[in-house]
């Protein structure tokens, strides 16, 4: 790993530790997905093992996070209608008002289903995820049903041209829910809530990686320290 990549990993971990410091014993915790959320899950496991926390239950946003949580000793339960006390997750882009793009790791649907039930959604990231407007650096992942996916992609391309179906090698990428993902290029100027409505109203779409008005705060780590951003 290059020095630069190593530094970025250290920053992600720093942000994760700040977020995990907010978790209290007995809480039901939404466990995010991705390379930053991984540090939070590991730290929660460490705190349980070292007796700094007890009675934590994790609700995982992907099979990978569920596996990791069990590995580090966090009891994992399925999502049910009860609220979660807190959820901790990474993001692909963070706008100034803490609206987010998520889902480059493919977990957007389970993340949204879980995090919408969290009393507090805490985002952890390194400074490269900060943008002045959503879509500046990352595509917007849109989860779509496999059945009729080419027709769904065509419907999406009518107002979001230039995107592409996500691939893993020569095959379509398949989410934990058995769906495909269309990575859309966002226009330079758009109203996020309106776009979200339009995409969700497109036949064949399951959900989008736009997480609007959901995050309470973000810990964003940069070389000169961790910044806490509050919505
Ligand atoms: O589907 C993946 C999730 O939305 C991740 O939280 C997001 O992609 C950020 O992942 P990472 O921390 O690896 O950059």
Structure description:
- It is an enzyme of class 5 (isomerase).
- Homodimer.
- One of its GO terms (molecular function) is ribose-5-phosphate isomerase activity.
- Pathway: Carbohydrate degradation; pentose phosphate pathway; D-ribose 5-phosphate from D-ribulose 5-phosphate (non-oxidative stage): step 1/1.
- This protein has helices spanning 3-20, 37-49, 63-71, 108-115, 149-157, 192-200, and strands spanning 28-31, 57-60, 86-89, 93-94, 100-101, 121-126, 140-144, 164-165, 167-168, 171-172, 180-184, 205-208, 210-211, 217-222, 225-230.
- It folds into 2 domains: 3-129 and 212-223, Rossmann fold (3-Layer(aba) Sandwich); 140-207, ACT domain (Alpha-Beta Plaits), CATH 3.30.70.
- Helix 1 (3-20) crosses helix 2 (37-49).
- It has 6 helices and 15 strands.
- Strands 2-1-3-6-14-15 form a 6-stranded mixed beta sheet, sandwiched between helices.
- The chain has 231 residues and is α/β, with parallel strands linked by helices.
- It binds ribose-5-phosphate.
- The site of ribose-5-phosphate has 18 residues, from helix 4.
């Amino acid at each position: 790993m290059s020095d630069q990549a190593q530094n970025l990993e250290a920053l992600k971990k720093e942000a994760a530790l700040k977020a995990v410091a907010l978790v209290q014993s007995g809480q039901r915790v939404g466990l995010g997905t991705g390379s930053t959320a991984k540090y939070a899950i590991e730290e929660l496991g460490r705190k349980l093992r070292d007796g700094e926390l007890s009675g934590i239950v994790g609700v995982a946003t992907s099979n990978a996070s569920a596996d990791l949580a069990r590995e580090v000793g966090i009891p994992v339960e399925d999502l049910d209608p009860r609220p979660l006390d807190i959820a901790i997750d990474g993001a692909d882009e963070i706008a100034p008002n803490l609206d987010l793009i998520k889902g480059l790791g493919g977990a957007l649907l389970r993340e949204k289903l879980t995090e919408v039930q969290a009393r507090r959604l805490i985002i952890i990231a390194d400074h490269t995820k900060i943008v002045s407007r959503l879509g500046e650096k990352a595509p917007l992942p849109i989860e779509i049903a496999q059945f009729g996916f080419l027709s769904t992609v065509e419907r999406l391309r009518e107002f979001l041209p230039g995107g592409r179906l996500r691939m893993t090698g020569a095959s379509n990428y398949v989410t934990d829910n058995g769906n495909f993902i269309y990575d859309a290029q966002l226009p330079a100027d758009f109203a996020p809530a309106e776009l979200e409505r339009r995409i969700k109203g497109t036949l064949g779409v399951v959900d989008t990686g736009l997480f609007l008005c959901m995050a309470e705060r973000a810990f964003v780590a940069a070389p000169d320290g961790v910044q806490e951003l509050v919505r």
